[in-house]
Structure formats: C-alpha cells, structure tokens
Amino acid sequence: MxxxxxxxxxxxxxxxxxxxxxxxxxxxxxxxxxxxxxCIRRNVAVGQAIYDGEIQIEDIKAVRCDNIDDIETxxxxxxxxxxxxxxxxxxxxxxxxxxxxxxxxxxNLGTSKDMAPITIGLGxxxxxxxxxxxxxxxxxxxxxxxxxxEGFAQANTxxxxxxxxxxxERILRASDDGKLHIIKDxxxxxxxxxxxxxxxxxEILSGLDGxxxxxxxxxxxxxxxxxxxxxxxxxxxxxxxxxxxxxxxxGGGSLEVxxxxxxRKNL
Length: 267
Prior knowledge:
Layout: E1 2-9, H1 13-24, E2 28-33, H2 49-52, E3 54-57, E4 60-64, H3 68-76, E5 80-84, H4 89-94, E6 96-101, E7 118-122, E8 127-128, E9 134-136, E10 147-148, E11 151-152, E12 171-173, E13 178-182, E14 189-190, E15 195-199, E16 202-205, E17 210-215, E18 221-222, E19 227-232, H5 245-264
C-alpha cells in the first residue's frame, strides 16, 4: 500500500474540491477519467487536463498522464496526475491508501470497499459500510458535507440547487442530438432568452439574466436534453474560475474521512 497516494475517480468540478484539499496537504492525487470527460464547469475541473494537457486551478496544477512515468513525474512536481482509466486498473496496480468515487453519477459505477483500505463515495448511489466506508452528502442544504458512516446519502431530487431563487432555469440543455457549438462561453454575461449555444443550428437559450458559469467543450457530441452548462444569476466573474462553496465543503469532508479512518484502522 502507498500510504501517500489517493486515487479519485472522476475529475469534475465537485470532485476537484476534494482533489485540491488532498493535494494541498501533501497527498499524491491520481485522478481517473473517461476518454472524453463532459466537464460543465471546465475551468475548475481537473478532468479538463485530458483535453488541454494541463490546467491550473487556483493554487493546484493538474497534468495529463499517459503512463506510470508521467504519473511519477507529476507527483515529483507536486502536481495532480490525471489519466484515462474509467475501469480503475491503476487502483489495483498502485494500491492507494484511499479511493474516492467523485463521479457523481447518482449510482455506483463499480467502486467497492475492497479497492483500498479507505473508500469514500460522494453523493447518492453508495451505501456506507457496504459499498464504501463513508458516504458524503452532496445535496445542498443543512446536511451538505455531512459524513455518513451507515446508510445512504439523500436520493437524487432531480432539482438543481437554488441560487437567488432560481433552480431549473439555471440549467442549459442540448436542443438536439449532435455537436455542440458555443455562442457565449464561460464568464459571458447573458440575458434571458439569449442564445448561448446551438446544436445543428437549433439554439439553446438562457432561462435567466446572469453569467455563463458552466459550458462543456466546443464540439462535444451531445444528445437532446443533455445538460451542457448553466447560468449563474450572480454576475461575479471570478466565480467562473474558482472552486465553488459546495465543492470546498465536500472536499473538507473527504479529507476528514481519510484522517478519521487512518486513525480507526491504524493505517
């Protein structure tokens, strides 16, 4: 077992809150992604390194790695390593101290307690004590970030978090099957009814006045109704380039779990 290695499945914006915390305190962090991540808040998602080769998010740097040598070099430079490995082959090969499932698929895509001495699941889809050691609540509200040692996180409500009274209106969804074309990218200020993107010429309109905070990559293959971005009613430009309050809080919970379980299991 490598006591300094944490493997995180998924490199989206919420998982990046956990990745930042772990990297900051000195753990080596390896992030396992799919070959074409659909990062919505791509400026603050380490998964974007799969496309760009590297990404700087606040005080951490994530780099794409295609083999073990690349991963070791990333760690030597105190960087986060990001690689394509949806099956999790590196988990068995590298034997980390902990595995964090941060895919946020609302269901378990294959994470199990026997993967590492410490296992954590973010959000619904996992049973604490059975699938993973601890589940962390990801639903906004009083229990956001709560550590669950037995049972489940709250079920997926299907409703986006409330920001300034807006929920579903904030979400941008694909208007057709095909390749996405961006009209208004991250950080753009838009009006309700304004076109922010299109698919096959069919426009995707903003549901409110605000700022584009999330938008997947240009040319991504999408399907009709797929979430492709979001608009924030708070027009604060730095919010497009900084980790969210939700991601930070969940990240703190992940670090807390690792410290608790290290003590409990005498690792």
